[in-house]
Amino acid sequence: MEVIHLSVECFPIAKVGGLADVVGALPKYQRALGIDAKVVMPWFDCPFVKEQQFEVVTTGSFFQGSDELQYEIHKEESDVLGFPLFLIKIPGKLDREEVYCYPDEAEQWIAFQHAFLHWIQNHGIYPSIIHCHDHHVGLIAFLLQHGVDFRNLADIRTIFTVHNGQYQGWMNWSKGILLPSFDTWKWGLLDWDGVINPLAAAIKCSDAYTTVSDGYLNELFIDANGLQALFNAESGKAYGIVNGIDTAYWNPSSDQLIERNYNRVTVNRGKEENKQALCKQFNLPLAFPLISFIGRFAKEKGADLLFDICVKLFSVRQNVSVFILGSGDREIQNGLIELQLQFEGKINLFFGYDEKLAHQVYAASDMLLMPSRVEPCGLNQLYALKYGTIPIVRGIGGLRDTVVDVLEEGYGFVFEKLNADEAVKTIERSLDMYTDNKIWKGIRKKAMQLDFSWKRSAQKYVELYNQLLK
User: Fold this and answer.
1) Diameter of the chain by CA atoms?
2) Residue 462: which of 18, 138, 34 has the closest Cα?
3) Are the C-beta atoms of residues 336 and 304 closer than 8 Å to each other?
4) Strand ranges for 212-358 from DSSP E
5) Positions of the chain with pLDDT under 50
6) Model pLDDT for residues 297-307, shown as the tens digit of each residue
7) Sheet holding 54-64, edge to edge
8) Count of CB atoms situated within 10 Å of the CB of 45
9) Are 102 and 127 in contact (CB under 8 A)?
């Protein structure tokens, strides 16, 4: 069975969020199950591409509106990622440093999808499954079925995974002229509320759609940024499959990016040495329990609550420290700078994203805070559990599916109401348990014994592929 994963992010080539981690790991685990899985994504002017050897396997051209676009298909030669990787390069469209934030994103992703279909059409590539990830490739299923030039590809099965339903790729119908020729009688499949909506088109046209957790699927039926009626109408082909993590890369016993390696037996000593290194680097008190936040400074992640949470926490607990790693909303960032000045020596910040530092933070921290408003799956809590760092999360989406509160004989701390007071109460509950060394050791060991690898989830995807092919 040949499966092509189509995405605009894939770790370590281009990463903005969890989408990249999924696409960078799932194909590798599927190959271990005997699936011929590969990844196709845009070409980016990034360190990975510059450091690896690529061969140009073919070239071609097509018209996007009145513009003729030339494309090249580059294949990574060594399969260093554990699966075949193909990059589509289009001068002026798919040859940039950043993944997002360009004014012509709609044109970029239309060109990416058109080039992909043009390539497989002209070279007789007929995969069993095309697995599309997020709205950037949401037009594929529609074009396979109703694109004038791609009729002989119509029998290819398609699966679409919703990583975040808040972002849908909306574009004005004036962009319709840029699409490959399609059966105009079917224009309604592209439309939602008077605009072209790639996410809606994918849900309508794909053979099946998945979300990255059961909890998030249920939430989309209730609130999906305007698409909840569509998700309900198409619920018969919906599947919730929780994400996994790449335990070859995220593993404290072999992680080359942390100060000292450790396992379930040596976790206490190992985390102490990693904590020593981080606290020394960022001038934090070693003796205090360390709570960290890693993520985008966005309301979706609850980052706007961090200021109030820390102020309230430090007013009731003196012996605690906080480390925040992330970037995003400028107003949130400025508030955190003010917070650091107000509580110097108790809190420190790193703005941006540093892969090595992120690993070190997971290894050094005692708790990880995730006060999310929206969390389709969440991977940070899974990384934290693997490293014996106990998650403090809001019970939403995939966080509810993957974190069980210690009061229910679990291994984390969960609060339901989204406000600073509830978050602080839950943090205090964790700090109380932290003071009992025996209890905390037991929670850590239970957390590190959990298996959130891709093995089980990859098998569920394979079962779904087989179901569709029957």
Assistant:
1) 70
2) 34
3) no
4) 238-240, 290-297, 321-328, 347-351
5) none
6) 999 999 999 99
7) 54-64, 67-76, 85-89, 36-42, 2-6, 129-133, 157-162, 208-211, 238-240
8) 12
9) no
Q: What residue type is 21 in one-letter code?
A: D
Please tell me the pTM assigned to this model. 0.93
CA torsion through residues 303, 304, 307, 313, sign? negative
Residue type, 157: R
CATH annotation of 267-451:
3.40.50.2000
Whole-number Å distance between alpha carbons of 242 and 458: 10
Q: Which residues are annotated as a binding site?
A: 15
Same fold, 2-244+455-469 and 267-451: yes
The listed CATH number (1.10.1610.10, 3.40.50.2300, 3.40.50.2000, 3.40.47.10) that belongs to domain 2-244+455-469 = 3.40.50.2000
To 10 degrees, what angle do helices 267-282 and 355-364 make? 120
- 19's CB contacts (< 8 A; 6+ apart) are 7, 9, 133, 134, 163, 164
348 neighbors 284 (Cβ within 8 angstroms): yes
Neighbours of 318 (CB within 10 A): 8
**Going by C-beta distance under 8 Å and a sequence separation of 6 or more, which residues neighbour residue 384?**
362, 365, 368, 390, 391, 447
| β-sheet bridge partners, residue 41 | 87
The Cα–Cα gap between 90 and 67 comes to 12
Give the residue from 379, 392, 395, 401 showing the smallest Cα distance to 443.
392
Query: H helices within 365-436, ranges in order?
Result: 380-386, 397-402, 420-434
Cα 304 → chain centroid? 20
For the chain, the helix, strand and coil percentages under 3-state DSSP, each to the nearest 5: 45, 25, 35
pLDDT at 353 (0 to 100): 84
pLDDT in tens, 326-373: 999 999 999 999 999 999 999 999 999 899 999 999 999 999 999 999
**Residues comprising the binding site for ADP-alpha-D-glucose?**
15
pLDDT of residue 17: 87
Domain ranges of the chain: 2-244+455-469, 267-451
CB–CB of 446/192 below 8 Å?
A: no
Residue 205's alpha-carbon distances to 47, 140, 240, in angstroms, are 36, 9, 18
**What does the buried/exposed string (b/e) look like for 347-375 if buried means 16 or more CB atoms within 10 Å of the residue's CB?**
bbbbeeeeeebbbbbbbbbbbbbbbbbbb
Question: Phi and psi at residue 221, in whole multiples of 5°?
Answer: -65, -20
Decide if 167 contacts 41 (C-beta within 8 A): no
The whole-angstrom separation of Cα 243 and Cα 116 is 26
Strands 36-42 and 347-351: unpaired
